[in-house]
Amino acid sequence: MLDPWNLDSEYGPNGFDVKFIYNLALNYQPSFYKNQQGIVGHLLGGWSLSPLFTAQSGFPLNVVQQDGTGSNTSREAFGQSDPSQSAIYNVVLTNGSFNGGNSLHYFTTSPAGSVGTTATSKSATGVSSEWLNMFGDPTAAYGQFRRLILGVDERGNGFGILRGFPRWNVDMTVTVDMTVTKDIRATERVGLTFTAMMTNVLNHFQPDDPSMNLNSPATFGRVSAQATGYDSRQMEFGLRLRW
């Protein structure tokens, strides 16, 4: 315990903390041509649509200051030291609150100033833009933070004071079931089921949370990749024959 007289000094969100999660699953089976009578009935009946919509708010976003290089990258702060860390979260908001936002911004030219000026690789994101950043004004967002001053500040709040990008996605399964009946002395049924499964149906770009290192203003807020688990649209088809 860093400060037994001030428990709030070491309180903060966990890395997996997500405030809001919403999942919506539907299954729709059109009622027209439900009995699949006739050629038209076999073609237009038996369909099933199952979309899955997921949405969530952002993960806690780390704002860090690099405290060295090599194996001794962590320095003592409030009496603790962890040599296994490559950065510490001891930064402070200059005005106590942050108003820089957390939505994706596209720049066709380098942002003004010296913050967020490192270009984004199109090969890593698949998005046709040179600069992608979490902030519409990276310089103003960067200016709302300062390094912690021991003996003046009671706590560092670099972890969780910001939230990463909210995320959403749509997946879908489409199924059509067809049955053919033929009478030859006895009744024989032959069935055919076609299934199509799609992930990220709308094929939208979901940005990964950016780097927020005060010692690297050129990459502050820069989006450099697509979020893990939100790959480009993928489709899988299946065909099953039964008799």
Annotate the secondary structure layout.
Elements: E1 21-25, H1 38-44, E2 47-56, E3 60-62, E4 91-93, E5 105-107, H2 122-125, E6 131-133, H3 138-142, E7 145-147, E8 159-163, E9 167-184, E10 186-199, E11 234-242
Antiparallel strand pairs: 1-2, 2-9, 3-8, 4-7, 5-6, 9-10, 10-11
Summarize the structure.
Helices cover 7% and strands 31% of the residues. It is mainly beta.
Average pLDDT reading: 78
Distance between the termini: 69 Å
Spatial strand sequence of the major β-sheet: 1-2-9-10-11
Shape: elongated
Total DSSP E strands: 11
Structural class: mainly beta
**For the report, how would you describe the main beta sheet?**
5 strands, antiparallel
- Percentage of residues assigned to helices: under 10%
Task: Catalogue the unreliable spans.
Answer: 70-74
Give a written overview of the molecule:
- The protein is mainly beta and 243 residues long.
- It has one domain (7-242).
- Helix content is 7%, strand content 31%.
- Strands 1-2-9-10-11 form a five-stranded antiparallel sheet, with helices on one face.
- β9 (167-184) and β10 form a beta hairpin.
- The chain is elongated.
- Residues 70-74 have low confidence and may be disordered.
Which characteristics define this entry?
mainly beta, 31% strand, elongated, 7% helix, 3 helices, 243 residues
